[in-house]
From TrEMBL:
Residues 6-66 form the HTH tetR-type domain. Residues 29-48 bind DNA. Pfam families: TetR_C_13, TetR_N. InterPro entries: Homeodomain-like_sf (IPR009057), HTH_TetR (IPR001647), Tet_transcr_reg_TetR-rel_C_sf (IPR036271), TetR_C (IPR011075). SUPFAM superfamilies: Homeodomain-like, Tetracyclin repressor-like, C-terminal domain. This is TetR/AcrR family transcriptional regulator. It comes from the Bacteria. Keywords: DNA-binding, Transcription, Transcription regulation. The lineage of its organism: Bacteria, Bacillati, Actinomycetota, Actinomycetes, Kitasatosporales. The keyword Glycoprotein does not apply. PANTHER family: HTH-TYPE TRANSCRIPTIONAL REGULATOR YJDC, TRANSCRIPTIONAL REGULATORY PROTEIN. Gene3D superfamilies: Homeodomain-like, Tetracycline Repressor, domain 2.
């Protein structure tokens, strides 16, 4: 007869996500996971598989938690450029925020740590990045159609530039004590929309 789990797998996955987010993949050992989750190694393996499988499940959970307001902000009726500017500024503020900056973004952290040599992690990173870049591009296309953005501008290229900037803000914000560094960079990039 199969035993009933003595822990909540959803709560354990959330805890694993938090630990991986704080420390990264390589710096988190199975012993760390056992201690942090408060469950045995065998239970972790039986429920989630290997440490790598648990990490990928944590990334999937992170993707489920992603900011739903991004699409809402960028798809509101009316002028599109104010929404694009607001999103970029929000990323800059989060990157400069003492409460949020040290954790950074799990996807950005994974891109730097695992994506170059881990195809499964790289796929999740790309999917997450598409979730940001695609609504940015759609908003810029709409801005151009509404006459807010010059016809000679390439909305796709601008969206990619803003997206790369936003990811860079997260990296620099995580390592820098100077909030003006990320705020100034964001404001300069936004002048390209004028």
């Amino acid at each position: 007869m199969a035993r009933t789990k003595e822990f909540d797998p959803e709560a354990a996955l959330q805890s694993a996500l938090e630990l991986f987010w704080q420390r990264g993949y390589e710096a988190t050992s199975m012993a760390d996971l056992v201690d942090y989750l408060g469950i045995g190694r065998a239970s972790i393996y039986a429920t989630f598989g290997s440490k790598h499988e648990l990490y990928l499940k944590a990334m999937d959970r992170y993707a489920e938690m992603r900011d739903p307001s991004l699409l809402t902000e960028l798809s509101q009726p009316g002028p599109a450029l104010p929404a694009v500017r607001a999103v970029v500024r929000r990323f800059a503020e989060e990157a400069a925020s003492p409460e949020k900056r040290l954790a950074g973004c799990l996807v950005t952290n994974t891109a730097a740590e695992l994506a170059p040599h881990d195809p499964a992690a790289a796929r999740r990173v790309e999917l997450s990045w598409d979730h940001v870049e695609t609504p940015l591009c759609s908003a810029l296309i709409r801005a151009q159609a509404q006459g807010e953005l010059s016809e000679d501008r390439d909305p796709r290229a601008l969206a990619r530039m803003l997206f790369v900037l936003m990811q860079g803000l997260r990296v620099v914000g995580k390592a820098s004590d100077d909030p003006a560094r990320v705020r100034d960079a964001a404001e300069q990039a936004l002048t390209l929309l004028d």
